Amino acid sequence: MRYAYALTTAILLSGAAATMTLNQPAGAQTAQNEPGAIQAAAPKAGAPMSFADMVAKLQPAVVNISTTQRVTMNANPFAGTPFEAFGGGNQPVTRQAESLGSGFLISADGYVVTNNHVISAGARGATVESITVTLPDKREFKAKLIGNDAQSDLAVLKIEGTNLPFVKFGDSTSARVGDWVVAIGNPFGLGGSVTAGIVSALHRVTGQGGAYDRFIQTDASINRGNSGGPMFDLNGNVIGINSQILSPTGGNVGIGFAIPAEEAKPVIDTLMKGGKIARGYLGIGMQDLTDDIADGLGVPKGQGTVVARVEPGQPAEKAGLKQGDVIVKVDGKAVTPDQTLSYLVANVKPGTRVPLELYRDGKRQTLNIVVGTRPPEEQLAQFDPNDENSGPGGGDTETMAAASLGVQVAPLTPQIAQSVGVNPSTTGVVVLQVSQASDAAGKGLQRGDVITTVNRQPVASAADVAKQVQAAKSAGKGNVLLWVQRRALGRFVSVGIN
Question: Catalytic positions (predicted)?
Answer without folding.
Answer: 117 (charge relay system), 153 (charge relay system), 227 (charge relay system)
